[in-house]
Amino acid sequence: MNRSRKRLLTIMLAVLLLLGMQKLALAQEIRTTSERADFEVYTSYEEMMDYLQQVQASSTEMLLSDFGETIEGRVQPFAIFSRPMVTNPAEAWATGKPIVLLAANVHGGERTVREGLLICIRELATAGTEMNELLDDLVVLTVPSINPDGLVRATRGNSLGIDLNRDYIKLEQPALRNFAQNILLTWYPHVFLDGHNGGAYPYNICYQGPAHAASNQSITHLSDREIFPFIGAELEKGGFKAWYYSGGNEEAWRTAPTEPRISINYGGFINCFGLLYESPRQSRPDGANSALIACRALVKYCARNPEKIKMHVDLARRETVELGQKAQGEIPVQIRTGPKDYKVSYVIAQGRGEEEQIIQVTNADLMMEPIPTKTRPRPYAYILEPRAYKAVEMLKRQKIMIEVLQEETEIDVEAYLMTGLERGPVYDHPASATVTCADETVKRTQTFPKGTYIVRTGQMMGRVVCHMLEPETTDNVITWNAMDAILPRAPRPPAQADQPPTEQRAGRIRAGAGAGAGAAGQRAGRAGAGAAQRTGRAGAGMPPAGMQRGGQAREPIIPIFKLMIPTALPTKILK
Ligand SMILES: [Zn+2]
Predict the structure, then answer these.
(1) Four-CA torsion 474, 378, 222, 102, nearest 10 degrees
(2) Residues of the chain with pLDDT > 90: what percent?
(3) Per-residue pLDDT, 512
(4) Does 501 map to a domain?
(5) pLDDT value at position 553?
(6) What residues are neighbours of ligand 1 (ion), with CB under 5 Å?
(7) Is residue 4 part of a domain?
(8) Are residues 569 and 451 both part of a single domain?
(9) 111 CA → ligand 1 middle, Å
(10) Which domain holds residue 497?
(11) pLDDT band at 446; cut points 50, 70, 90
(12) pTM for this one?
């Protein structure tokens, strides 16, 4: 190489270096509205969108996108980070790295963790930062606002006032359905962080992992044993305190609700680390800074322990599929939360205003152990008649694999006898249904028509399948009114048989069914009679709710049938 070429090369290198430094300086100038105001104001939706676009424009290592639109047409932003860059889920899985999803602001008014996350996004995008260096070891997905319509109103719910963090099973609200379908059930992250404002003063961050007994407990245990202590230590270095969600007294610390309709529990049901960060009452700068440290800490933990994170998720996934394929194990359908088998120490605030005191509590119970109070055996598959199409729609929203019988088939099934049916408001469902069942199931051979739905439990979503199709759980297709048209009539308690309203209602339904009225009733009735003739078996074919046979009230069977042993069936996957 001659001298002039050497000089040219030197100049080119210098120019490149200068350009690089300029780019770094540019990235460092990009600030959220909240940062510019020392965190005393929140970054608005529009400012957040501008900021994300600016960070994107300053970095070659960020891919800004969106995963849908809200009811009011606001775009829901998300960004992908990894090195080398990945652009879609298949590429992300092919890297063999854990996929870590950082999300916040599902409750629109809860904006603190989002402020920390927005800064974390800039750090991930900016060369030379610790966050950016970690991108060699993991894929990071960021969703700073799940609920933009709630964000612009600073409300808990969306524009309809509905709490999106109770919609994870129903997936009825567009913003949350987009998030579940296009992020969680598209990327299948190993870790899913959900940021809120709640928990107990004087802590800066309150955390918790999946709380239901039906999810893989080793995921929850690793969160408790390693991840949260690591995050707590990182926060302590920054002068902040962390402890479990949600609050306590001098005897015990209580934790989050256990229903799978809630983010962290849903995370457990889909076999990932569903982790909660709640930012309790504190100054806004402390809130944003502690949230930032906590976001960084989670990324750091995952980058340092990729194999451990992946192993726990892989085992949980494999366990789900294997238990289903072999039709083994019990499904916890009802649980309570009891104390852990160790004691804990924490601080609580007592009194109000000037009187407020911080009290150290020692040797207290941590009420976080999910204890099954009722279990049911896991079937190989659940079977739904064609008339259960509304329940099938709900299952399909979860991207659950459903098969359809291609020909009439005789199958040995079990079913539950309904002993009670109550209706009452549960979140946005004014007449949510809760059924009780006899402990003994009805066992019968039944002929199912072509078009019957078969839902295997041996699939990635198997835990969700079991919870949604066992009638006695908290969040199933009956709870959320997808079975209303085909449930048996509520049994009349003998003691109240003479009450006029019940009598009147029952009489009306009986009369209608007896006269063969009701299109659905007729269809199912004919199918039932036909099946009975063909097979010549008692109990084959199901008359609809309210039908009578031979003058006797028929058994109030819930039309969700369980196939208890692995059985080959003439099916095709439902498109
Ligand atoms: Zn919240």
Answers:
(1) -50
(2) 83
(3) 29
(4) yes
(5) 60
(6) 107, 110, 196
(7) no
(8) yes
(9) 9
(10) 379-573
(11) very high
(12) 0.87
